[in-house]
Amino acid sequence: MDLKSVKSFCLGSCVILFLRLTVVLFFVFAAQPQSYAQGASTVLNGVILKLFGKHDNFAVDSEFQLMDENQKLAITLTLSIAVGEGKMRADANMATAKGPAISPEDIAQAKAAGQDRVISILRQDKGRMFILYPALRSYEDAILPKELASVSGLARIQKTPLGKETIDGHLCIKNKVVLTDDKGRKQEMIAWEASDLKEFPIKVKLSDGGQNWIVHNRNIRFGKIDVVHFDVPAGFTRMAPKK
Question: Rounded to two decimals, what is the model's pTM?
């Protein structure tokens, strides 16, 4: 897929984008109705939950690289992620987005609409998902999709060691990881898990929703996250539900 095709794909069918794209949708459609960003958040957050699995109470800066069908970089984006006791927050900032699938015009359009920064918060304890737009001081509130309501649906995790590699100064076990949910559906990935960081994945390669990802985790901090970090800030206005 060449650059023109990537752009055409990203800016094409709204229905397909709503269902399948993740990071690209977050930003290329940032100036569109907020339901697009909410759809992107659902898929992206599903990927995040699969990546971190059993780990809880940590914060990390995760660089997501979305590859095209020829394994060439389409877009890269760094998310600031925090996870704590069934709650998750992912901060996405347009300023960190790079790659041929996003243009300065896309960024300018998003900024003009006040959607160049998007925060998604998952509250499994409340069964809700909040999408925040800080520049607009507003948010969306939706029922947490079933696939994100709990990581317990990952009924079995099978790891097959493929060797050892050092990444960012951490000795990692390179594993083929197969996640099988309670319906028998499988998700495969390659994960480089740091032996000195509770097997935290430093790097991951996976496919999800037809998209190919490489994720590099940096600045990993373990410890309890203040619950306020997972609440809608005071003064934010709830957007009216879409009809």
Answer: 0.75
